[in-house]
Design goal:
- The protein contains 19 helices and eleven strands.
- It is an alpha+beta fold.
- It has three domains: 132 residues, no CATH class; 70 residues, no CATH class; 292 residues, no CATH class.
Length: 607
């Protein structure tokens, strides 16, 4: 359900604004309208810091797995911890590059042996120049047939098919004409370079200790980020009031749940410099939306949030689509074993109290239960059919019938949900605008139900009500009048008639497409069930006959195959019922989306 809100118009003296907003932020239940807010330079800087803090906090998930960053002592404050994190991140990244580069250079120098660079310089002063080269060993062997006759060439080392060698020349003479890769004359030997690597690694170890302290200060950094959010929100609210009386009066618009009316009123009445007016929101107001659902529907708000929250003053459809979504998810999975797996995963997440996963774990458990129930209806448990497996005869016959009629059951689910959505549309329109504005939808609903009964009742042996019966035709006439002539009470009946004809065409064509969309439930269920059977057959046919080994191979094939199938089935079972909810159900229920979620002006930083 949508929580009822009160609309507050606040008028305050400009000099009292800062102190008043501080007390209002402490109260933490009033949503202040900030429409049209554009961040200034300082606010953009704070936004950047908030994003940087968020990135730092997210990086700790991976850093905590590194043994080098465990067991650190937290810093004294979140601000200091964040500053040290920025410095440590920068130095560690730079040192990582330097160490990698120096290590590579040391490995290259090691090819030339443990020489003394001063000796090369001494030879150069005496007129002897050493030229350093490298090439593939086979090319060196071929080249030496020519180079060895013209120059003094000495191989130094051979590594991974590459030969490193030196050619001797004299000052003032042209460099040897050798077709090989020239190498820069080394200024250090390998020992000196490895010493440089060791020094860099020692410096990195010190910064690793700093990063370990940063990881230990994760909560402090998150709390400091919340403080920045409070600062930004305060600045945003303080700049969004309308200035009146030459800027001496500030007018703010706020919203608070009716359940908090007593504490909000008491706080405002105690303010000597504030005048406030409390009133009920209208459909024209941009009222923030807060949802409040019970133990069953609450987890399904996670699904609804993928689309939008409902507009204030209309109906929250969460509790109404939740049973259908649970049923459709189970339809797509179609396996009680898979459903039990989902339920156990959700239960594990719930019992472990994983951070931020409370509602998701409950949702997974509900969806798992839906899958178990539907899997038992069709008689599938990890790809094994229960039909003909010694179950009671009535249950065996029921499973057989359901499996034979699964295609029509999917279509039937669509028809039921669409009719239910139209009923909600009538109620929703009546609540929001008045009963007379629902006549068009009510007429279409009457026609749809009347035709459905005229089609189904004779099939089940009920006589006297068919398409040619007077009662059926009379009901059709009532529905036609409502849909064609009274669809909008503010328009001329002739205009309504033309609009009604167009709506009739859209309804008829839309209904066919909407109902056929539910065939996807049957298709997804069929594909997942077929794959489960395939993996079971593979496990039985590919496993060797050797006792012990056979069971092991079968287990591995079943675990791998069913694991993949559960993952793929879960994706389809989550997405496709969501599509049916947001497109078919929301459309027929007349869902109106809100652009604003209730966001109270409150402190996030823990004191």
């Amino acid at each position: 359900m949508i929580v009822k809100m009160n609309k507050y118009t606040l008028v305050l003296y400009h000099k009292a604004q800062e102190e008043f907003l501080a007390r209002l932020q402490e109260l933490g239940v009033v949503d202040i309208t900030t429409a049209g807010w554009e961040p200034n330079e300082k606010e953009r800087e704070v936004l950047g810091q908030i994003e940087a803090h968020k990135a730092a906090t997210e990086s700790f998930t991976a850093l905590k797995k590194n043994p080098a960053y465990q067991g650190g002592e937290p810093f004294a404050s979140g601000e200091e911890a964040y500053e040290q994190y920025v410095a440590a991140s920068s130095h560690l990244e730079s040192l990582g590059v330097q160490i990698a580069k120096a290590t590579k250079e040391a490995e290259e120098l090691a090819m030339w042996g443990d020489f003394t660079p001063s000796t090369i310089e001494q030879l150069a002063r005496e007129g002897i120049v050493l030229y350093f080269y490298s090439c593939y060993t086979n090319e060196f062997v071929q080249g030496m047939k020519v180079w060895g006759e013209q120059y003094t060439v000495e191989p130094i080392a051979e590594h991974n098919g590459t030969t490193y060698f030196v050619a001797v020349g004299r000052q003032g003479e042209p460099a040897p004409q050798i077709d090989a890769q020239p190498v820069r004359t080394p200024k250090l030997n390998a020992s000196e370079k490895y010493a440089e690597v060791k020094a860099l690694e020692a410096e990195k170890a010190e910064w690793d200790k700093v990063m370990a302290r940063c990881v230990a200060s994760q909560e402090l950094i998150a709390d400091h980020a919340n403080g920045l959010k409070d600062e930004l929100q305060f600045s945003q609210v303080s700049r969004c009031g309308d200035k009146e009386a030459e800027g001496k009066l500030i007018v703010l618009q706020g919203w608070a749940p009716e359940e908090n009316a007593a504490e909000v009123d008491a706080m405002l009445e105690a303010e000597g410099d504030v005048i406030f007016v409390k009133e009920k929101p209208t459909m024209e107001d941009d009222t923030p939306v807060k949802l409040k659902n019970g133990w069953f529907a609450k987890p399904f708000e996670f699904v609804g949030d993928f689309y939008a929250v409902p507009k204030y003053g209309t109906m929250d459809l969460t509790r109404y689509f939740a049973p259908f979504y649970m049923l459709f998810f189970g339809f797509c999975i179609g396996d009680a074993g898979y459903g039990a797996t989902f339920f156990l995963i959700g239960l594990f997440m719930y019992l472990k109290k994983m951070k931020g996963m409370g509602l998701i774990s409950q949702l997974v458990m509900w969806l798992g239960l839906g899958s178990v129930l539907f899997g038992l209806l069709v008689g599938n448990v990890y790809g094994v059919s229960l039909i003909g497996k010694g179950v009671p005869e009535w249950y065996d016959n029921a499973m057989q019938t359901i499996n034979d009629q699964l295609f029509y059951i999917a279509l039937g689910c669509g028809i039921v949900q669409i009719i239910f959505a139209l009923v909600l549309n009538v109620i929703n329109t009546t609540i929001a605008y008045g009963f007379k504005y629902s006549f068009g939808t009510l007429g279409w609903l009457i026609i749809l139900v009347d035709c459905l009964l005229a089609f189904l009742l004779p099939m089940v042996g009920v006589e006297g009500f068919g398409f040619s019966s007077p009662l059926c035709l009379g009901i059709l006439g009532v529905g036609a009048v409502l849909m064609l002539l009274l669809n909008n009470p503010n328009r001329n009946p002739l205009v309504n008639f033309g609009s009604g004809l167009w709506d009739t065409y859209n309804n008829l064509t839309g209904l066919l497409g909407d109902v056929l969309s539910y065939v996807r439930l049957f298709a997804i269920s069929l594909s997942g069930g077929a794959l489960a059977v395939v993996f079971n057959d593979l496990a039985g046919s590919l496993a060797p006959d050797t006792p012990g080994l056979r069971q092991l191979v079968m287990f591995l094939i079943l675990a791998f195959g069913h694991g993949i199938n559960i993952f793929m089935s879960a994706i389809g079972a989550f997405v496709h019922p969501m599509r049916l909810t947001f497109i078919e159900f929301y459309k027929n229920a007349g869902f109106e989306a809100s652009t604003r979620i209730y966001t109270p002006f409150r402190k996030q930083k823990q004191n």
